[in-house]
Structures are given as structure tokens and as C-alpha cells.
Amino acid sequence: MASWQKTQGRQHLPWQGTRDPYRIWLSEIMLQQTQVSTVIAYYQRFLARFPDIRSLAQASQDEVMPYWAGLGYYARARNLHRCAQAVCTDWGGQFPDNSRDIITLPGIGRSTAAAIAAFAHQERSPIMDGNVKRVFTRYFGIEGVTSERATEQLLWHTADEVLSAAPQDLDMTAYTQGLMDLGSQCCTRSRPACERCPLQQSCYARLHDRQNELPTPKKKKPSPERYCSMLVVNMAGHILLEQQPSPGIWGGLWSLPRFDSGDDLLSACHKWGTPDMPAQKMAGLSHVFTHFRLHIEPWYLSSDTPRIAEPLPNQRWVALDELHKAALPAPVRKILEGLFPARFAQADSD
Q1: pLDDT per position as a tens digit, 324-339
Q2: pLDDT for residue 307
């Protein structure tokens, strides 16, 4: 696996070729539930603003969240911030040098801790992320839903045995990266490229034509449908945003005021609007979360005259020219980009 990675695997990702545990940790957290192609730009932008763990620890959560907005799974960003603070407070600003201690930090599980230790310190510990689970279930013919405890324990046991049987001079960086690369480049979810896989001669799934059956699929439950309204209040060139509570799906981000009932929406329209300037209904949109689908009905209210009403403590007015800097959830950014495309286009080109 290590030798295959050195000739066929990915070699030029921005987080490769470093022993800096901060950069390795950041990439591992960003890559959870997110594709490499999406992560690269976020990773580079994040490092430009927070080049080391102390700069991240010293920042406020409000300063951190705009650099994560759009990546989703926002608990990762909150835990990232907490972890940086813990490393600086409890470890003198230096990441622990072994997976046993790394796993005690906020937001870091067994596989991530092992990956950091392997890449930064060549620690001989197995990983078991989604790509690796797919490789192992197919190669060894392991049945069962991978998220279930018994199957996961068997996968970890198998990974430990593989490493125990490997040569003592095994390059753990190449081996660990090789497993990830094999899962993303050859042993993909659909249409795996078995003809390019270095393990094809002894792979259980290939020999038994079961690539489409392994890993054992999890029974899908219908996604609940949820509905809400959002109000875009444009008051003299400023947009009203509302910080979302933590924990929560968008915890720490700045969203448009959201309403689950028509009466609450009407009350807000009366608060910020005028009789001769009613709210206008916009085209709706949907956003898919892990466990449900949210249908959003946006409304637009605009006035050149500021109203006397004060925003709530968790609300603030943001100038149109500053909107692109706010930590906006993806669907909220889409709504605002549709209304003010020039403001976002100019920011993206700078």
C-alpha cells in the first residue's frame, strides 16, 4: 500500500509534505464529510488568517466562523476552536505527540487522532475513516452496517492485525495516505475502478462480484420535511442578521431572521416595514441537511428610511458591502447573492 501510494497516490495536496500537526489536524477536520476539491480553498484561506494554533486559539468564535461558513457540519468549527484553546492552555501550544493523548482533545476521534500521529510522528496506529471502511469491507468481505458497533469493532480489529503483520520499517505516512487514496481513487462508492487497484488479485468483493453489495447499505429512512420563512430586511443599505444559538445546526453563524409561523412573520413585517412598503415574496428554495430537508420561503422588505425599532440582542445590522464577510449559512448566502449579486461578485474577485 505504501509503495503504491508513492507512485499512484495523491502527492500535491496542500496539507501533504508537512509534519506540522496543526496543519495536519486542520485538514483532517475539514475533510470529515467534505470532498477534497471543496476543502482545498477553505484550507488555504483558513491558514492565511490563522497560520498557527495560537492565532486560532486567541481569536473569538465570531472571527473563526466566517472562514468555515459554507463547509457545513458547523460543530466541527466550534470544536476546532475549543481544541486550539485546549492545546494552548493544557499543552503549552504544542500538539501531543501520540494518538492516546490527541484523542482527549475536543472534536477528535480515534481515527483522526491516529491520522495526526501517523502523519506528524510516524506513529504505528490504524485509521478507519469512511474511505478505509469501504476498502476493508470489500477486501476482507466484512458484512454489516459499518456504523453499527459490532461491525466497527471488527473493522478496527482487522486494521490492527494488518498493521501487526506489516514490516517494521513501514512508512506510516505513505501507508495511511495510501488507504485514503485507494478509497477515493479506486475503491469508490459506485463504479469502483478495480482494474487499477493494487489489491484486486485478492479482494473478496472483486472475486465474488460483490462490489455493489459491500459495504452493507444502511436502511434509508425518509427525510422529514421542514418549512420556514426568512425575512430580508434592507434598511437604508443594511441587512438585519441574527446569530444562531450554539449548539445547533448553524450555531454561531449569522442567518436571516427565521419564522416558523405566519403570525410571527407578519409581526416582524409590521415592526420593520411600513404600510406603503409591504414585504415581497421571493422564490423559495430547499436545503438538504443530513437528517431532514428544509424548505425556505424568503420575503424581502426594503426601506430607505431607518426605523426606530431596535434589533434584538442577537441581531445586528450589516452593511451591504460587508455581507460577504459574514459567517452565512449556505442557503442564506444564496438568497442574499440572488438579491445583491454585484456585492458578492466584487468581493469574490478581490
Answers
A1: 899 999 999 999 999 9
A2: 66
- 1-125 CATH: 1.10.340.30
Q: What is the average pLDDT value for the chain, to the nearest integer?
A: 92
28 belongs to the catalytic site: yes
Residues of the chain with CATH 1.10.1670.10: 128-220
C-alpha cell recorded at residue 186: 479506486
The pLDDT tens digits of the residues spanning 1-21 come to 788 999 999 999 999 989 999
**Span 140-166, mean pLDDT?**
96
280 alpha carbon, distance to own chain's centre: 34
Domain with CATH 1.10.340.30 in the chain: 1-125
346 pLDDT more than 60: no
Confidence (pLDDT) at 303: 79
Write down the CATH superfamily of domain 225-349. Answer: Nucleoside Triphosphate Pyrophosphohydrolase (3.90.79.10)
Of 28, 123, 148, 297, the active-site residue reads 28
Fold for the domain defined by 128-220:
Endonuclease Iii, domain 2 (1.10.1670)
